[in-house]
């Protein structure tokens, strides 16, 4: 049988399938749909940095409060376990987490193991086509519980958006060494409407400190 | 410090606000020596750009002296004299590396807002709404500049502020508009709008090899200014003038090789079309008034290029896309990739090829800014460009120089 196309000077080997289920049998598959009280989010970013460098930043659990929103502390409690605290408004919730899969330079998967949150997820780092950086893909699920509702008490961020924002912060930190920040900018009196807009636009959620000392 | 604040639609006030502080390791604080009001500020003043909050400090065209730098700033030190680009770029993301600086991934602190509106977020801008980052602007005595290793251009020579200030936006914007117009030597280029952006688009079109530039506006002082740098002018408001006919008449029936829309979403029109857009935008069925865009698509020659530096924000109605397709035209547009143009354009100024200060008509204090916003919007008082000295006091405003100042003084 003849091959219909032979001239593909820059084409790469087409993956039959990819991690986080984006490609299955050479065909795009949408993210998992929310069902039975479980919500899903899949998001990805192109980051200038090697998979290993990015893996190293992500795997350093105690550094996570520097780039994830509203996570006020993560303490390593074992080789694969950690204790998390999240503060949203004046509400704090805590849970334990364990690493399920740890492939240096490639992938980390985790799930909560008790406490006030039920969540599980994975992050995958893979080289982008043509050496254009690293694709970081996060797939995360939550069971709607206290965690999700604590997040949702804030206008402007639901847990899905928070995962998107956290990957954005991670990328900014990895690429520039800081997280862009407008909070703390000079301004005149906001008045009532200005203040309302700030919450609607999600500007009252503290920007993670990045390399700065967290403001307590 | 004193700063010009947006306090609602058509409401601008000069207020006393807290001084800026270093918030991130790559920040710098600049003491502003000159700043300007831009045509883009009118879109905020007139309420066309959403996500403004009362108290926002306006201004994205400014220069000054470095006052303080964050711990990771290595390119600048206290005392350096700099012009700051209005787009903020990180220098490290895939877009910055490709020189598409205005598309920087990492500088919009509210990227989610722009992502919701446009699919993807562009770079952060100074003093230009919360969806563009929520950064305080430079119509103030001091300003915080993030990613200061990447943006600010050091001015080593003793060129006066007024000759280099417009490297912060409108000169590069006019230049990129001309570059986007893909001008071939000998081409005829039509430019709608003879405001500051139009002026520099005309000048740059000549620099890039245009044989003829046709400039369209209705304000006599601006048309005069366009003629002074060599353009043929068309006053669209004159009785019996039809812009499309004029452009055919002036190009042997062929149409301009390139068209530049340096007007944007607040185009003015006395005709029925203008009323149509006014009604539709009031009813929120359309967000912009694309009168010039429609004309330019219609006017450009077959296979020609349309370059759009004029700002559009949202949904446009009755854009003749069939004509664009039918003639096979190319369209290029967007916020200016500032960082690519500042240095080469500074060199052109240093070599004396152009003195951008020719467009300045008004020199004012911060206190005068609120009334000048109104004059700027209404195009009164022969205004062509307003420059603010944030340290001039209201008391001796009569003593403000009317001629470009000598920096050694
Ligand atoms: N792309 C960018 O990065 C960038 C940067 C700066 C400014 N801009 C935009 O460029 C545009 C022009 O800026 P400016 O500072 O010169 O503003 P401006 O308001 O001073 O100038 C606009 C000019 O257009 C003229 N005009 C209005 N309706 C017209 C029509 N129907 N036909 C012909 N001319 C018409 C006006 O008389 C005026 O002279 C604005 O939309 C501004 O937001 C874009
Ligand atoms: Zn501007
Ligand atoms: Zn960038």
Automatic annotation (TrEMBL), chain A:
Coiled coil: none annotated. Residues 206-216 have a biased composition (Pro residues). Residues 1-30, 180-216 are annotated as: Disordered. InterPro entries: COQ10_START, ORF3, START-like_dom_sf. Residues 11-20 have a biased composition (Polar residues). Gene3D superfamilies: 3.30.530.20. It comes from the Bacteria. It holds the Pfam family Polyketide_cyc. Residues 49-167 form the Coenzyme Q-binding protein COQ10 START domain. PANTHER family: POLYKETIDE CYCLASE/DEHYDRASE AND LIPID TRANSPORT SUPERFAMILY PROTEIN (PTHR33824), POLYKETIDE CYCLASE_DEHYDRASE AND LIPID TRANSPORT SUPERFAMILY PROTEIN (PTHR33824:SF7). Belongs to the ribosome association toxin RatA family. This is Membrane protein. It comes from Tunturiibacter gelidiferens.
TrEMBL record, chain B:
Its cofactor is Zn(2+). Residues 25-153 form the Alcohol dehydrogenase-like N-terminal domain. Gene3D superfamilies: Medium-chain alcohol dehydrogenases, catalytic domain, NAD(P)-binding Rossmann-like Domain. Pfam families: ADH_N, ADH_zinc_N. Residues 196-267 form the Alcohol dehydrogenase-like C-terminal domain. PROSITE patterns: ADH_ZINC (PS00059). InterPro entries: ADH-like_C, ADH-like_N, ADH_Zn_CS, GroES-like_sf, NAD(P)-bd_dom_sf. Keywords: Metal-binding, Oxidoreductase, Zinc. One of its GO terms (molecular function) is oxidoreductase activity. PANTHER family: DEHYDROGENASE, ZINC-CONTAINING, PUTATIVE (AFU_ORTHOLOGUE AFUA_2G02810)-RELATED (PTHR42813:SF2), ZINC-TYPE ALCOHOL DEHYDROGENASE-LIKE (PTHR42813). Belongs to the zinc-containing alcohol dehydrogenase family. This is Threonine dehydrogenase-like Zn-dependent dehydrogenase. It comes from Tunturiibacter gelidiferens.
